[in-house]
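ARCHIVE CARD
Drawer: 12
Card no.: 0347
Subject: one protein chain, sequence and derived structure
Cross-reference: see card 0346
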Amino acid sequence: MEKLPPGKPGAQPIAGQFEGGILGWVLNLIGGKIGALIADLAQALLGLGNFADPNMNAIRDGQLDLNHRTDLLSPLLDYGSAYANTQAGIFNKGQVGFTNQIGPMQGCHLANGRIVLDSEGLWDIRCQLWIDYIDVLSGMVEWEIRILNTADQLYSRQRTRLDSQEIFSSTNITTVVVPQPGYQVQIYITEMAPGRGAIGGPTLNRLSVQHISRSTDIGNTGQG
């Protein structure tokens, strides 16, 4: 095959032809911006850091700066909130690990991907999951709020079920009365098609508990 003279177009790769020129400058600029944007999005989904683009700071949840500000809560109010970390990837069947505190936490604490209730009585529990789409197989998803006793045995649960192949968010709310400290709130997916998942990140999921009363003669005691 005849070689092209060095001065003719096509003699060098396109990138080489424009290296050091205006096109190379533009491509490098775009590449740098996209790289920074991807890095910023990853940090935002993890709820971390300050970002190269100041507009990205709006994505990060401001409550993360208040994790130790229990002075903002009423002394009479036990409360805690957490999210499942994006680093854990996509959750399929089994426990969804709520490992990251978001905002001040009082009267409860995180352990093993669950919220541990530090007092007896009536608690209000709320959870939202973000479910990814699936093209084939069943769109049915079933998950539940589980309350485990101090021996990790099931004490009470509240189930929810939806059927859709599209992306959707799902919320579950329950109340429970626990007889002593140390009971645990666990989020557990019981049915989901292989390859589908609940996605982590502070904007996509949340588990929150609030202590209503220390009385143990009202609410759901897990019977039935």
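Annotation on reverse: Residues 22-46 form the longest helix (25 residues). The two ends are 83 Å apart (CA to CA).
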